[in-house]
Amino acid sequence: MATETTTEVVGSCVGPTGSAIGLPQLCFDWFPNQIFWLLVTLVVIYFLLARIALPRISAVLAERQGTITNDIAAADDLKAQAQEAEAAYDKALADARAEAQKIAAETRAEIQAELDRSIAEADADIAAKTAESEAAISEIRKSALESVQIVARDTAREIVRALGAQTDEQAINAAVDDRLKG
Amino acid sequence: MATETTGHAEAGHAAEGGLAFHPMDQFIVKPLFGDGAVHWYTPTNVTLWMAITVLVIGAILILGTRSRAVIPNRSQSIAELAYGFIYKMVEDIAGKDGVKYFPYIMSLFMFIVVANFLGLIPTAFTTTSHIAVTAVLALAVFISVTVIGFVKNGSAFLGLFWVSSAPLALRPVLAIIEVISYFVRPVSHSIRLAGNVMAGHAVIKVFAGFAAIAAIAPLSVLAVTALYGLEVLVAFIQAYVFTILTCVYLKDALHPSH
């Protein structure tokens, strides 16, 4: 049977010179061969892909995706840490500033108290001195007034005498005192 | 056209020394060993190039990813790019529940794209240029998608053909059109791929044949170069189109309502 097919095949699809008769695509004698080997090829490719290649590639892609996700998560963590550190730093800074302000306020208050105390002391001092001085001044004024009185009495007596009148000590004194008061 | 070309070729042979065009000879299936008949089990050039396809896919997707690096090297990037490209396509078009069929679609895409590119190597045999190959691929998609549709949705899958958004009077007409278009799917799906690849390769071969005439040889070489560039595009685009259509059909099976 085989030999029969041989002659038939050569006769129907390939000419005696070895070139094709008609479309080789339409040579039905070759169909079983092509279909058989195609099916073998497809099955082999399918198993190579489904069993080895595709799981491997998808695993690699998944791993890469995982790595990227992990890296992004780690980066987020680090960012959160950095923000925390920044917050802590800001807080420390604010605390320090508040402390400094407190110390400054305390110092200022102390200085103010000291100053107030000194001013009060000085004021008291000044007041004492002023009182003393006023006492002295009034003393002086008093003595000056007495001197003026004496001088006025003397002057008045002499004037009265010079006018030739009787010098009444009592009357002159009263007159002078009266004038000085007025 | 094919018979004409063959006729010319025969005439060329008869004239001995004239232009000899054999643009279709590149598609001949030959046994690898000896000149015997091509039985279904015979190792042929189909076997060879499909085996090379498997090896290349293995090299890209398995050898390239053997380091399993979190930071990929170049070959691993290529594998991941292919994976991501098809995975996203399946997810975007067929939806979350289509992801289950991703290995199947990935196998189809890798086979077609690698076979297309391998076919562009001069003197290579292009397995995807044969309607027998693409028809099996398309039928496999058609049958599995239809089975998935009925298993997942039961008779509700027939709602795919009953356009509920259309006026009632039009629905039977539309249903007939939808049924026809549904059954034409595997035909267009397979012929689109095989036709594009075969036509491109045949045209390159025809232009290459003109290089035998010294006067137009430069033009011929230029044309072959340009066509080769085009074919590189076609090789990828057809694989992409086949895969994306598979995803669309899968989406129809999973969510048959319009």
How many domains of chain A? The number is 1
Structural class of chain A: mainly alpha
Number of E strands of chain B: 0
**Which blocks of ≥5 consecutive residues of chain B have pLDDT under 50?**
1-17
The largest pleated sheet of chain A is described as:
none
Structural class of chain B: mainly alpha
> Per the principal axes of the C-alpha atoms, what is the gross shape of chain A?
rod-shaped
SS element count, helices of chain B: 7
SSE topology string of chain B? HHHHHHH
Subcellular location (chain A): Cell membrane; Endomembrane system
Protein name (chain A): ATP synthase subunit b
InterPro entries (chain A): ATP_synth_b/b'su_bac/chlpt, ATP_synthase_B_chain
Membrane topology (chain A): Single-pass membrane protein
Question: Topology of this structure?
Answer:
The complex is a heterodimer of chains A (182) and B (258).
Chain A: H1 2-13, H2 31-162, H3 169-181
Helix pairs in contact in A: 2-3
Chain B: H1 2-15, H2 45-63, H3 74-94, H4 102-119, H5 131-153, H6 171-210, H7 217-254
